[in-house]
Amino acid sequence: MAVNRRFIPDPPAAVFAVLRDGYSYQRWVVGTSQIRAVDAGWPSVGTRLHYRLGHGTASKADETRVVRSRPDVLLELEAAGRPFGTVHIEFWLDAVHGGSLVTLIEHPNRGLAKALHNPAFDLAIWLRNVETLRRLAAEVHRIVASSAE
User: Which pLDDT tens digit goes with each residue over 41-96?
Assistant: First the structure.
């Protein structure tokens, strides 16, 4: 299991506003090259985000499904990465003095990814999610700054 945390100097509502914008994921989720479609009602339970991973001939279409959603608190997802299986992802948002503490938890859930799960796999996910949270913070800042203009 990979657990990452990052302080973002904006309230949980601002962070969740970015999580609510399914089309923004291509700007901040490492590895996502294109959002192909977002189900109406995203991020309600059961809705899906349809995306493309990778680039060019090495790209693959897949989807992520919302498992649980509590606005401004939690977004829990199951992301497919066929043929490797699925991963479970949780974004927890805690209000702290001066902003939000975002906790991102990710672990293999089903299929080959779960069968081959090991500490090196967790480290690779952890490193990827350091960058994902850095990009998420930048996206939140961009949205907050543009709405203040």
Answer: 999 999 999 998 877 776 788 899 999 999 999 999 999 876 778 899 999 999 99
How many of the other CB atoms lie within 10 Å of CB of 89?
Answer: 22
Global pTM exceeds 0.85 = yes
Coil/strand/helix, residue 45: coil
* Residues 129, 32 contacting (CB under 8 angstroms): no
Q: Would you state the structure tokens that stand for residue 83, as one six-digit string?
A: 């043929």
In whole angstroms, how far apart are CA 69 and each of 12, 14, 99?
Answer: 14, 15, 20
Name the token pair of 68.
């649980």
Cis peptide before 71 (omega within 30 of 0): no
Pairing of strands 86-96, 99-110: antiparallel
**CB neighbour list of residue 142: distance below 8 Å, 6 or more residues apart:** none
